[in-house]
Amino acid sequence: MLxxxxxxxxxKALGIEMKPxxxxxxxxxxxxxxxxxxxxxxxxxxxxxxxxxxxxxxDSILEIKCPYAARDTKSPVEAVNNELxxxxxxxxxxQISLKNEYKYWYQIMGxxxxxxxxxxxxVIHTHHWMTIQEINYDDEF
Length: 141
Prior knowledge:
Layout: H1 10-30, E1 34-35, E2 40-41, E3 49-50, E4 54-56, E5 60-65, H2 76-81, E6 88-91, E7 95-98, H3 103-115, E8 119-125, E9 130-136
């Protein structure tokens, strides 16, 4: 077997439960509609595929993370400062940003390449807060 079988965990269960709420909240906060989507296959490398959490406008995707480790934090900065979101940095004292050397960055760049879109709305959502970061496709990637 190439990969371990999927197992149900409390972390995955939280993400499954929270993503629809995060999508609705994103629509309200951004004023944009999200179209649900299925699997996209790369036109050149058919073995590569991506499933964004949604399509936004004509040129963007939505990627949502609902981190179990940060579920009880009161702010994204608190989550980063307590090392619960090791894939983010604090910027401007009250905002966070995805590190571009982390696997989620690679995931987003791959999704943008495969879908042919130019921008990702990267959302981190918990019961207490939400962040939205716009990440543009990097042609040099």
